[in-house]
Design goal:
Length: 234
Amino acid sequence: MRKNIIIYFITLLTAFNLSLNLEADANLHSRFQSTNRLKEKYAVVSGQSIIGMLAAAVLAKSGYQVDCFEIRDEYTRNIQWAARQSLVNELASIDEKLADSFIKEVVKPIYKGSTHVYADGYRRNKSHDGLERGDPSRLPSTCDEMMAMSSVAIAEAKVFETFLKKYLQSFPNVHLYKGYFIEGHQIPDLIVIAEGFNSKSRNALNIPLIPAAEDKLQIAGTLGIDSGGILVSF
């Protein structure tokens, strides 16, 4: 008999935030008892992106045996993330030492607030109290609440990804692999798809793509200290 598979989609859109609360489901543990892995809960995370690795950390902390798959040889994304305080608080909810190390080793604080440029060219300035230590008790309850927060730090994607990979390697119940999990791998109790838009794993499993937010224009721009940002293109 084939096992039931529960698919969790984790999408990173305009917000940089992770909301995985496994404890919120009171029936979670009873739903994952039918595994062949010596009664251990077994999960697969396809895609070692920032979101994928954070998902793997949450699962490992919750008692899962986790196999993580990634097709890239190394992290080379030359992009930056603007991080809100909510991200640091989310990291602290996983591991307070992880959040402290993130502040020390990964992010660069933004001291003068931030400027958000909208698709119509309108600029909205946001001020803040600065980057603080992670506080798990201050997680936003809604996406709107999180999006209203100002950016407090800048993180380079490849530095953050390398940092999280090292953290995952400290877990005895997490194993990292190169390639796709769908190639001859056993069916897990839980699958996390943390790949891009044209996910090979999602397509192979015939999982429909469900939009998680309304379509919005992406904006490219240049940062100027005096100008507060110059709009380049949509």
